[in-house]
Design brief:
Rossmann fold; 30% helix; 230 residues; alpha/beta; single chain; 8 strands
């Protein structure tokens, strides 16, 4: 029986200032989707509110828009998936073997406090499934608690978009908080590559995380390996 993956995307389309758009960093979805598709995995997409997921404009510009992103943009059936994402209330966690949080700065707003996403994540993890994220997707793990009340990321190794990368991307004054710092404050053993923006993943048992957009494919491959090790 093939594995079942639940991708998580954002519903937010801008920073605090509406004149600054943001959204889903498309390649973080498409790269992972392709890896899982080649494995024959079943895949679905959920968002905090369900429905439409806006795209980060910068993720659609060269060099960020690559083959997989362009293929999605030109495929009406794929783009339709981002217009009718599932609502957490409609998701039975027992239907999935792994959850994969995509990024884009927008997720910093609607991922952390989504009780629906927290429920799904906790249930998948406690049932022996894989919890994963790439780039800012780890914001969706910041406040997730297990049934014993402990934070899922506390005491675990992980990575995600670094503060240095925020500064280099020139959005450090736009983001609502320092995600790297927030993860450390919650007891996570945060790690990052010595060189910003290169692919970097961290695997701590059934917690799989990737640092930045360029890490999506490697993160997905690590998820496949974790599921195989199951």
């Amino acid at each position: 029986m093939s594995a079942r993956i639940l991708h998580v995307v954002t519903n937010v389309g801008h920073y605090d200032e509406p004149k600054h758009p943001t959204g889903l960093w498309l390649s973080e979805l498409t790269h992972a989707w392709e890896v899982f598709e080649r494995q024959g995995f079943e895949q679905s997409i959920v968002s905090p509110q369900g429905g439409s997921s806006p795209l980060e404009p910068r993720s659609l510009k060269f060099p960020n828009s690559d083959r997989t992103s362009k293929a999605w943009l030109s495929a009406p059936e794929k783009m339709a998936l981002l217009e009718r994402t599932l609502h957490p209330d409609d998701v039975d966690s027992a239907d999935y073997d792994a959850i994969y949080f995509t990024g884009g700065h927008a997720v910093m707003y609607d991922f952390p406090d989504s009780e629906g996403l927290q429920r799904i994540t906790r249930e998948i993890f406690e049932r022996g499934g894989v919890v994963s994220s790439v780039c800012h997707g780890y914001c969706g793990l910041l406040n997730t608690r297990l049934s014993d009340g402990s934070l899922l990321i506390a005491g675990r190794r992980m990575t995600g978009f670094s503060w240095k990368e925020e500064e280099l991307a020139r959005v450090d004054r736009l983001v609502p908080y320092n995600a790297e710092q927030a993860a450390k404050q919650r007891g996570a053993h945060y790690e990052k590559a010595r060189i910003p923006f290169i692919s970097h993943t961290v695997v701590d048992g059934r917690l799989v995380t990737g640092q930045n957009p360029g890490s999506a494919k490697a993160t997905a491959k690590d998820v496949v390996a974790a599921l195989s090790a199951g």
